[in-house]
Fold these 3 entries.
Entry 1:
Amino acid sequence: MNDTSATSAPRPGTPSRLRAINDRAALDLLLAHGPLSRTRIGALTGLSKPTASQLLARLEAAGLVVPVGTTVGGPGPNAQLYQVNPAAGYVAGLDVTPGQIRFAVADITGQTLAEHLLPTPGRQAAGTATEDPAGGWGRIADGLAATVERAGLAPGRLTAIAIGTPGALDPQTQKLRYAAHLPGWHCAGLLDRLTEALGAPVAIENDVNLAAVAEQALGAARDCSDFVLLWAEEGIGAAIVLGGRLHRGHTGGAGEVGYMPVPGAPVIRNVRRKNSGGFQQLAGAAGVLALARRHGLAARSAEAAIGKALATPGAGDEFLAVLAERLATGLAAIVAVIDPELVVLSGGIPTAGGARLRDLVQEQLTGLAVPRPRLLSSTVPGSPVLHGALQRALGTAREQVFTTD
């Protein structure tokens, strides 16, 4: 038998590798805590003062940190403060829907520098990503360029781009799946073509997954490693986070629960050819509007119907009770399999219902499933998908920019 002990034993880190680990730890601390002094960085990392001084000098020379004033009011001489250099890298996030695209550009610290909204109604949506006869990549490239310009940046400054779309990119085929209603985004080699056209590495992620990324980084799921985010708006979707990591599934379709069979809705035998049925028919926007009409609460949108119900005793109470039961019925199937610590309700429908709808769903869920996770409402402001796209792009950019080994 060959002796493999020499190759299987862990090898000690090289000095350069240890320096890189310390550098990244310091950069992460600066991102989390803001400007810090050499002494504070040493205390948080366990490094000696001379080592912390060398580390900061190395990061400053690399353009990754900059001095930003001194401490005041403490005993002894004022200490120099350092922060991550915002100009060390820039990222873009996009939230793509059939009707519009939201763009945002942020610096490496996560500070949003500019946003832009591009309507893509009707047939215009088909020209946003597919290559047109005149060359270029349609309106998506123009929209991103306009956002970069608003941020005060020159072209070519982006380090990473993340795009949130309905559906998901199949990791085996690199084609967008589960998003037939998004015209213009189904060509072969989509990632490579977009990367070439937009001038920076592009990642495409399911929009509900990105909402969960934002919730974990900025919102109700902070410090939670096992949770489900249920998104209810025009359609229904879920994102699953296990052990702190997104669970995407073999083809990227984990969380595509819109057509999941639930009591009270028709069972769909071929979801590729149908546009209604299952969980989505009960609790998506169209189902909510139909339910509201049956209770005499006519409105132009699901969110407006819920707002009217909240202000209408009697009929409104009955409507909210049925809607909560529908949401809880779908959730019961999900939590019975996942058994998460937390469920976050997000999207326009839960947001419109606020604490009252959430509490009703919690009450209904308690009787429908053995697991009893906490239910919280999303606390991410604005577009959770856009925030999640920026977080996804920042993760990629920081891995690249902060590598000092």
Entry 2:
Amino acid sequence: MSEVKRARGSFDYQLFLVTLLLMILGVIMIYSTSTYRAGADPYSFVKRQVLAEALGMGAFFTIYVIPYSWLRTMGRAPFRYFVLGASLVLLMLLLIPAFSHTAYGATRWLDLGFVYLQPAEVVKIAVIFFVAGYISEKPERVNTLKGYLTCLAVVVGCGGMVYFISTNLSSALIIMGIGVIMLFLSCNDWKIHLLVAGVGAGGVYLLINGIINSSMDVNAVDYHFKRIMVWHDPSAYVLDGGYQTLQALYAIGSGGITGKGIGKSVQKLSAIPEVHNDMIFSVVCEELGLVGAVVVVLLFVLLLARCMMITLKARDNFGKLLCAGVMMHIAIQVILNISVVTNTLPNTGVSLPFISYGGSSATFLLAELGLVMKVAKE
């Protein structure tokens, strides 16, 4: 009993230290990539990122100290429906011009006066709570096709709303990915997995193959379809979307083994659009080389490995699923970002956690890690 008491209440310093290292590296790279475009104040992007991370740390420690029973309550019916519904209401506020903020041609943020909030990040956490609560309340129901598809329909519906309201395909894919993997980890019926995977993979293959082999003009198709055509052959569409990808690949190739040094990137000066956001990993490769890129990937591997250990040791199914959802969120986002930068996947506009500039993403990712830390404490 004494060993149990000593174990409970302990702070997971390994998880916290890896997160802190990623945040520090992110601030350094954001400063390196944003100073020349920041205007009169070269620290403007860094200040906003640090403020967002400070808010995220506040959420991190707040979640750490609140009773675990409160989190369990949020996963139970009807509270999980309220949490999910509230997040979708925030999302629908984007349709009202008085509340929304448009940047880079997309309306994805709510203007709160002192800060911009991206509702898609709230929906991600709400979906994690919903699926964790839905499954842990009656684990046996996801082993039936009806129960599985009911939960999957909610997840796909939330992802669809994010896409159609905010035109944010990357967040929609991440939401769907989180839900599908949480269901995969909980369902013991492989026939259901094979059915869903077969339908999904077949649909994606037919869509991509149809777009690539079509004779449509790249400028006459939806811009998401256009990205698939650019991904297939970026050099053929240099003036129609392939420029960013090609410049990012040039940056990666020019970094060599050890890189050019912090602040010495050439491609960031004007060649790579949004270099401090989605394409920041290309500058990591250029300035820090292969060594720096490997270090960044290893830090994420350590973070995910620690989340996995906490998931496996969680004392209840709700805690396991909560940690698994957060772990999958980070893993999917890291894989998508690095794959996009290296042109392994079509450009989806997803940021690299803690490294890319993005206030809402940093704040809510830290809040999610606070959930993992809380489960570790228990």
Entry 3:
Amino acid sequence: MEVTVTNLDHNGRGISKIDGKICFIENALPSEQVEIEIITEKKKYMEATVKNIIKKSDDRVVEKCKYFTFCGGCNIMHINYNKQVDYKVNKVKEIFKRMCKMDINIDEFVKSEQYFYRNKITLHVNNNKIGLYKEKTSEIIEIDECLICNNKINQIYNILKKQDLKNIENIIIRSSKRTNECMVIFEINDDINFDFFANLLVNSVDTLVIKKNDYYKTIFGKGYICEKLDKLLFKISPDSFFQVNTEQAEKLYFKVKDYLGNNDNVLDLYCGTGTIGIFVSDKCLNVVGIEINKYAIKDANENKKINNISNINFICDDSSNALKKIKNDFDAVIVDPPRSGLNKDMIHELFKILPKKIIYVSCDPVTLARDINYLLEQYNFKKISLVDMFPNTSHIESVVLLEKK
């Protein structure tokens, strides 16, 4: 059937209505007239794919990636980049309007390079095929290159895809932008020929690591790589979280520092390997970072030593549980929770210490707006900036400044 697309949903899908029922259409843009095939029909909605574009939007561009229509990783690559920015701005505004009853202004939108920005990829292996999962399936798509991963990652991938990958489940490649170091991690289910892969990769990567049953073994190299943000050096272990877009991560942390201002005592919740806390420490008298992952805390303490930072301390604990035991007075709290956001117990504990400022870093505008709605009981919403960490996808990173009423 033919339909006209009215707007985009928060996942970048076109929206139309058929007999009063909403229809989500992959790879369709507002104002386009498209011929569709319905692939799913539920009680309240339908899902469809585009079979033919009858009338194209002026905002549509030709996708540079030949895997775009079935990979699903870059779900809005078909949209002009400036329109991608507009889409993300409007998406955040609409979410806050709906969930917080607020008309917000965006303080700043930090744009990114569109291609070759990722410093990490996870490749899946099955029946000696290596590649990315086809959208919503476990079918592997073999590729020539990923246009959003840096060139070093693509070079290593093209070496590996020619090899016998028996007993390997996943291969993770991490490559730093500023230090030019590269790490490959094999997740295996049985023994492999370590010597073969060591000889194969020794001139191409800095370290090779094997993971089996949550145990890591370094085959060669130091077992980690390092990356620079501003003048700081950070260790990245095989299982460490590090933002996938190095350039944008640095800009994000500068925005956090700007919103933070000069403070005496700062609490950094969900601190991971300590990147944000260390990055802002030069504007603070004292910083305390809290993280539940013991391996992340180990890296955080090493990052502290590497950068000769003396005014930050790290605690390995659940963030809400640690808050119950901490007696310090904090001028500001930085929160960078997982996609699920803050739980009510955490917000309750924040209300007990009532810092003057809360800087909330979020990768999900929906859970961000939900939590802001609770925090508005004690705080005023002051500013929000958006950092495009993931161009060509519907995802957006946000930084919010809240001040105590």
